[in-house]
């Protein structure tokens, strides 16, 4: 079914003229969106408003905790040769400070804020997969408490947030902390990727009718860019984590030079993640600027397409400059030059974005406000961090500055100016949106100046202490270096900064005592400011037709029309939570999608999955396996009962004479997109492992090496496994096609064949390395071959489960030909599985002969 | 601030800051590369200050301008020039200017090579003069002023990083790899280097002395360093050293001690510091380290010898100090 063109829609509002009709609609909407109440039941909530607020608060608390860790460090470093804390404690402090700020604050905070804001920015009732948000939140909470709490037991990770092997992979040199880091944060990474999938689908498929891509609020653009970056940046780290834990738990020598491994592989995988990470946490703050600067200039943002292109350009470049973290590792000079150039080049799109803001302020009527103060102040700090960033992009200068306090200064200028202070500005800007109340302008300004002074006093002297020979990550320094004064200044600055943060917290705590303010207090023009101080849980009264980037400013009578339900979907006749799915490019309405309702399933699934990671940390493998099986069962139950539901009628009127379907499958549905995007992440992680294989090939003159236990896996078994995977893939594809034509029995037969083929490919894939007796602890070659084989066969196994699920749905009467979303979605998986198998089996089966 | 004024003021400021620390600072170079990079640093800082002030001035102007002062086209021209063209030109020039400095300095096979290997938390040092046998030492690097020296950097256990701020930029020491760093000291004196890559518990306590000497003095020193330890086997500490198995880990050439697990001690007494650059060489400090190395340096591999009497550790310390 094609989407109707919006030009033909008769904007006939007369049906909404009757107040009684409107009140009845409002009552129905209110009943449908009523949050679960009660001491326990409230935690089953999945609505974006509540989950987003839990998420934000949790990330904020983690930030405060990590900040306190930093204060302890600064106290230790206040004077030379201090012994306030031991070396052991100090190493845990800085590792946990960095790891928590990155993984438990900066990235989750972006996702949390986006979960709150995105539906409001898009005039949607909720995100497309509310239960997935809840699952992401519970995973984040469990993993975060596990990692952060470890310091109270003196087992926190102590290898630095970058965890360079072999210090961290040799079990005689590092303890439980390394496992806690690796497994605890892998768990968090899973939840980050889950949130990214949610946000991408939200931006692409849940925009209001008429909001073409070029009318999207810039924050939504940034969410899209950043979430896509998460999708491609986190998986290489996950691949690295897999290799890392294989080495720690099973002694597979990926990073052990004595057995053919190479510690540098980890550095590549880590920084392929780690550098985009910087932009992942910086771009959302630019996005906040992009929302509040037009408001306080009272005009459209100047250079909208430039900003979008610059954001996309930054994202692209950010994947091409990870090596500047490795300038001192002795790389070839040509790559130094290339990565120096790329690292300097990223300043250009950043500059374009900043000058768009400056030009907007220049052209508009500037209204001074606390959020704008935060924006300009953080811009000043960020520009200093950006300029030192260009300095360290110059490789020779970096050879001196690298791993010194100069870098500590640089990165904190970037992150305070590019993340933390903008977030506080965003807090002051968006607090009225969430609570209906403004924060105190007075306290906000005092807090800003205290933080601004503190940040500069803490971090500016570090430029000098670094150049004067103070390396990073030292728990003490000798008095003879003469760095006592600079360090004392930094310590005082750090505590001053903390005092500013405390003032913000005081302001937040006073908020419940204040009266609600007026709607849209800043007179902004974007959709999210439709939010009413007397909060309703339905998200938006009616889903508007968008004709401008600033509809509240530009579309006459816009707010009233929304409030009076004169736009789309003003009702919940069937008592279901619903929102509109539209086309990706031009936002024509495609479907009314029924959303997940409150449920404990996401929480229980998160607990079970957390069990897998946490129990593995303590080597309780059987219990971990039990949790894994429970997780799988939970996911299947969740899917079976909550997704691809067959609606009671084919379509539904959303007003204005538009009737659109309640069920769609295939590439226009949100579920298909979610599967596709998830598999992009999966394929990226896989390419990280493949990169490992060829990386080892490049560093060894003879690869594969000769010798017993290293001759394999031969060509036969990998090729057999590949043929079986392709058979399963073809069976699924054909099943989908003929199923749609009504040949249900034949499709079922093909699915059954597909299950067998997938399972057989699992066995054949493992048979290669098994029968040729590849011994993975001997050398890195058998280890990486085994890893690729296990990865691919595990995917075959999951493929078989999916095929069985679709077959079961069909047999249970839950997947008739007109309602075949499940079959479409597992076919997407099969496409990626086939691709994975081709690359993996060609690599392990054919490449040794070619090499 | 005008450029000429800055050019004269900035080095003065740096010199003043560096005044308190002349032996471990990038701002007080004694080597060719560090001096080059300091010059580059000054220019980069100057450029950064100018750009920062320029952007700040633009922001202030933007805030003060009445609405409509800047038209849409004017704004787009600002973005194009200030955000696009000017940065591209400046960064392009910067890249071209800095590219030559990324080339490694030339070296010939006739140059002295020194192999340095990082260990938790100390340094193996082996001088490899051309056509002569290597000379093994530890925790101190001596360099001939004015001569090119090739440092071959490796690691024994985990990743370390070799950094002598006054000599040259740092270079990582990575297990399984050998990195080359070509250096030249230009000013004689006593300096300090540190490990710059986090390497475990006592990363902060992993330093070493660097002594840049006139070439003739260096040659004489190297010849002396190549000789076995002076025959002081009669000292009471020597017997204790042997009896307690110290030689199992530490080599003292010319004695029964031939171990290579810990630092070579053949000319231990000639070094200015002990425990990898963290304590001055005094009898009390040596005795303290022998008695319980872990209390001085957490995570050090050397076992504690608490069962030895203070007299015995003193004797061992005096013996070690006599190894000039």
From TrEMBL, chain A:
Signal peptide: none annotated. It catalyses: 4 Fe(II)-[cytochrome c] + O2 + 8 H(+)(in) = 4 Fe(III)-[cytochrome c] + 2 H2O + 4 H(+)(out). Residues 27-559 form the Cytochrome oxidase subunit I profile domain. The chain crosses the membrane at residues 52-73, 93-122, 134-156, 180-204, 216-238, 269-292, 304-324, 336-360, 372-395, 407-431, 443-464, 484-510, 621-640, 672-696, 716-738, 750-771, 783-807, 828-850. The keyword Iron applies. Pathway: Energy metabolism; oxidative phosphorylation. It is a multi-pass membrane protein. It is an enzyme of class 7 (translocase). The keyword ATP-binding does not apply. GO terms for molecular function: cytochrome-c oxidase activity; heme binding; metal ion binding; oxidoreductase activity. It comes from the Bacteria. It holds the Pfam family COX1. Belongs to the heme-copper respiratory oxidase family. This is cytochrome-c oxidase. It comes from Alterirhizorhabdus solaris. The gene is ctaD.
From TrEMBL, chain B:
SUPFAM superfamilies: Cupredoxins, Cytochrome c. One of its GO terms (molecular function) is copper ion binding. It is found in: Membrane. The chain crosses the membrane at residues 43-66, 78-99. Residues 232-324 form the Cytochrome c domain. Its main location: membrane. Residues 109-224 form the Cytochrome oxidase subunit II copper A binding domain. GO terms for biological process: ATP synthesis coupled electron transport. CDD domains: CuRO_CcO_Caa3_II. It comes from the Bacteria. Pfam families: COX2, Cytochrom_C. It catalyses: 4 Fe(II)-[cytochrome c] + O2 + 8 H(+)(in) = 4 Fe(III)-[cytochrome c] + 2 H2O + 4 H(+)(out). GO terms for cellular component: membrane. Keywords: Copper, Electron transport, Heme, Iron, Membrane, Metal-binding, Transmembrane, Transmembrane helix, Transport. Belongs to the cytochrome c oxidase subunit 2 family. This is C-type cytochrome. The lineage of its organism: Bacteria, Pseudomonadati, Pseudomonadota, Alphaproteobacteria, Sphingomonadales.
């Amino acid at each position: 079914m094609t989407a109707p063109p919006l030009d033909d829609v008769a904007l006939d509002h007369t049906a909404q003229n009757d107040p009684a009709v409107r009140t009845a609609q409002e009552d129905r909407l209110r009943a449908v969106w009523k949050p679960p109440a009660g001491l326990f039941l409230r935690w089953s909530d999945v609505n974006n408003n509540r989950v987003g607020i839990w998420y934000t608060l949790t990330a904020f608390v983690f930030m405060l905790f990590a900040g306190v860790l930093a204060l302890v460090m600064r106290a230790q470093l206040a004077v030379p040769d201090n012994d306030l804390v031991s070396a052991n404690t100090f190493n845990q402090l800085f590792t946990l400070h960095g790891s928590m700020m990155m993984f438990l604050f900066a990235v989750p905070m972006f996702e949390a804020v986006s979960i709150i804001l995105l539906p409001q920015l898009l005039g949607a009732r909720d995100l497309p997969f509310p239960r997935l948000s809840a699952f992401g939140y519970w995973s984040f909470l469990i993993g975060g408490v596990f990692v952060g709490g470890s310091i109270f037991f003196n087992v926190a990770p102590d290898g630095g947030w970058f965890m360079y092997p072999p210090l961290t992979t040799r079990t005689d040199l590092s303890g439980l902390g390394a496992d806690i880091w690796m497994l605890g944060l892998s768990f968090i990474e899973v939840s980050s990727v889950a949130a990214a999938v949610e946000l991408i689908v939200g931006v692409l498929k849940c925009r209001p009718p008429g909001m073409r891509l070029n009318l999207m609020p810039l924050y939504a653009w940034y969410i899209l860019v950043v979430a896509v970056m998460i999708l491609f940046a986190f998986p290489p780290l996950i691949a690295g984590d897999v290799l890392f834990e294989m080495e720690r738990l099973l002694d597979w020598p990926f990073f052990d030079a004595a057995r053919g491994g190479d510690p540098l592989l980890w550095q590549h995988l880590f920084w392929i993640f780690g550098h985009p990470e910087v932009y992942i946490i910086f771009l959302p703050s630019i996005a906040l600027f992009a929302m509040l600067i037009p408001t306080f200039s009272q005009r459209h943002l100047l250079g909208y397409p430039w900003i979008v292109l610059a954001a996309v350009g930054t994202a692209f470049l950010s994947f091409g400059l990870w090596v500047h973290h490795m300038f001192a590792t002795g790389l070839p000079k040509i790559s130094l030059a290339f990565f120096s150039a790329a690292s300097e080049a990223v300043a250009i799109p950043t500059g374009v974005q900043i000058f768009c803001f400056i030009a907007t302020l220049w052209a508009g009527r500037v209204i001074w406000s606390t959020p704008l103060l935060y924006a300009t102040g953080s811009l000043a700090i960020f520009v200093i961090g950006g300029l030192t960033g260009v300095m360290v992009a110059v490789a020779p200068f970096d050879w001196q500055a690298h791993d010194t306090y100069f870098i500590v200064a640089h990165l904190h200028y970037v992150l305070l100016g590019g993340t933390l202070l903008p977030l506080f500005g965003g807090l002051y800007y968006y607090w009225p949106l969430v609570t209906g109340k403004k924060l105190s302008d007075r306290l906000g300004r005092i807090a800003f100046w205290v933080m601004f002074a503190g940040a500069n006093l803490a971090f500016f002297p570090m430029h000098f202490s670094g150049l004067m020979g103070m390396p990073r990550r030292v728990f003490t320094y000798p008095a003879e270096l003469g760095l006592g004064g600079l360090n004392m200044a930094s310590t005082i600055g750090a505590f001053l900064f903390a005092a500013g943060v405390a003032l913000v917290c005081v302001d937040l705590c006073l908020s419940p005592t204040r009266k609600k303010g007026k709607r849209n207090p800043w007179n902004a023009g974007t959709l999210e400011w439709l939010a009413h101080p007397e909060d309703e849980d339905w998200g938006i009264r009616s889903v508007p037709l968008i004709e401008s980037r600033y509809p509240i400013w530009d579309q006459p009578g816009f707010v009233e029309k929304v409030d009076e339900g004169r736009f789309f979907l003003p009702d919940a006749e069937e008592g279901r939570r619903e929102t509109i799915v539209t086309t990706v490019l031009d936002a024509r309405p495609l479907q009314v999608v029924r959303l997940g309702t409150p449920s404990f399933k996401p929480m229980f699934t998160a607990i079970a999955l957390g069990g897998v990671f946490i129990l593995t940390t303590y080597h309780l493998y059987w219990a971990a396996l039990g949790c894994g099986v429970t997780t799988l069962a939970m996911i299947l139950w969740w899917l079976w009962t909550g997704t691809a539901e067959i609606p009671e009628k084919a379509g539904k009127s959303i007003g204005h004479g538009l009737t659109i379907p309640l069920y769609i499958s295939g590439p226009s549905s949100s579920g298909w997109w979610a599967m596709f995007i998830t598999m992009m992440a999966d394929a990226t992680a896989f390419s990280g492992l493949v990169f490992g294989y060829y990386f080892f090939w490049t560093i060894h003159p003879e690869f594969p090496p000769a010798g017993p236990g290293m001759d394999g896996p031969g060509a036969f078994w990998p090729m057999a496994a590949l043929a079986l995977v392709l058979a399963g893939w073809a069976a699924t594809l054909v099943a989908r096609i003929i199923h749609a034509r009504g040949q249900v029995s034949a499709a079922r037969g093909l699915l059954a064949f597909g299950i067998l083929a997938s399972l057989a490919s699992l066995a054949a894939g493992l048979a290669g390395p098994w029968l040729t007796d590849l011994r993975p602890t001997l050398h890195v070659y058998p280890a990486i071959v085994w890893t690729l084989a296990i990865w691919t066969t595990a995917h075959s196994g999951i493929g078989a489960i999916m095929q069985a699920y679709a077959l079961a749905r069909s047999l249970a009467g839950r997947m008739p030909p007109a309602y075949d979303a499940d079959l479409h979605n597992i076919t997407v998986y099969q496409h990626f599985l086939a691709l994975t198998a081709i690359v993996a089996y060609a690599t392990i089966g054919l490449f040794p002969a070619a090499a | 601030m005008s450029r000429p004024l800055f050019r004269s003021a900035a080095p003065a400021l740096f010199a003043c800051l560096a005044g308190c620390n002349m032996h471990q600072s990038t701002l007080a170079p004694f080597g060719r590369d560090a001096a080059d990079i300091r010059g580059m640093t000054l220019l980069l800082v100057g450029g950064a200050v100018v750009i920062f002030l320029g952007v700040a001035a633009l922001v202030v102007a933007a805030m003060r301008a009445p609405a409509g002062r800047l038209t849409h086209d004017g704004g787009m021209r600002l973005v194009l020039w200030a955000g696009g063209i000017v940065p591209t030109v400046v960064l392009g020039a910067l890249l071209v200017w800095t590219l030559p400095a990324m080339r490694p300095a030339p070296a010939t096979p006739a140059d002295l090579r020194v192999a340095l290997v990082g260990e938790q938390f100390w340094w193996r040092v082996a001088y490899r003069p051309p056509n002569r046998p290597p000379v093994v030492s530890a925790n101190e690097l001596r360099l001939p002023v004015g001569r090119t020296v090739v440092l071959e950097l490796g690691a024994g256990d985990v990743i370390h990083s070799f950094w002598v701020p006054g000599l040259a930029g740092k270079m990582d020491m990575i297990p399984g790899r050998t990195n080359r760093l070509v250096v030249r000291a230009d000013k004689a004196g006593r300096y300090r280097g540190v490990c710059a890559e986090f390497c475990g518990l006592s990363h902060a306590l992993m330093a070493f002395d660097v002594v840049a000497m006139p070439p003739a003095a260096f040659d004489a020193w190297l010849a002396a360093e190549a000789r076995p330890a002076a025959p002081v086997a009669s000292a009471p500490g020597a017997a204790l050293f042997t009896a307690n198995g110290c030689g199992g880990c530490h080599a003292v050439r010319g004695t029964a001690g031939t171990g290579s697990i810990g630092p070579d001690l053949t000319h231990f007494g000639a070094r200015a510091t002990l425990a990898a650059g963290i304590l001055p060489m005094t009898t009390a400090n040596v005795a303290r380290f022998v008695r319980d190395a872990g209390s001085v340096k957490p995570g050090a591999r050397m076992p504690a010898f608490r069962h030895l009497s203070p007299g015995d550790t003193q004797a061992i310390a005096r013996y070690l100090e006599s190894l000039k």
